[in-house]
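Appendix B. One record, verbatim.
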Amino acid sequence: MKLQVESFGSETEWARGIADRWQERLTANPALRHCLAAGLTPVRIYAEMIRRVREGSARFGDARIFLLDEYGGLAPDDPGRCANMLRRFLVDHLDLPPSAFFTPSVDAPDLDAACREYDATIGGGFDLVLLGIGTNGHVGMNEPGTPVDIDTHRAGLHVETVTSSARYMNHDRFPTWGLTIGLRPLLAAREVWLLATGAAKAGIVARLLAEEAHSDLPASWFRDHPNARLFLDRAAAGDVLA
């Protein structure tokens, strides 16, 4: 296993430590091409990066950000849409040009064509990918059973994922599908950071570290990535790093 594991004593230390590394990457490569997840897991990291942009120690003016995935079946202005969450928690507070934030066209009449268009926009791939790990091991909307060689695609969401989406919604019309960047381009990224905090993630973290890579645990494919890191707080680390 090549996956590097780093554990922090608290979620605050976790967010600051990841932000330190992110700032270093941006300083070394101001044109960094990111693939970023929405959702609640990275919010503390995003808040720390916003603080650094405001104080002038980090900048995104030459960077590019690609949204990892987007829910289908929601209105464009729904606050639960992934693009809206990422704008609210990060993008709208950066010095990033509006034209440097890319999202999949989930409302397009031809979703297969929209997926191919997004792959073409991604082009040469990512310098840095941030991925939360779902409690069933999904990354993005690459649910258990997703082929490892798949590109951007329409994905049906498992019941567990649908249920967890409720925290982002102000209504009960929970999404059951979405568009997601596939495992192939994620695994081709130059650097990947897997993120997990809280005791609820300790079980899937233990599985990730114990099991060989297989399709029923999508996050496990990153075990052998040449430049992947797993960042945990104490609760998510559980007993496996004790």
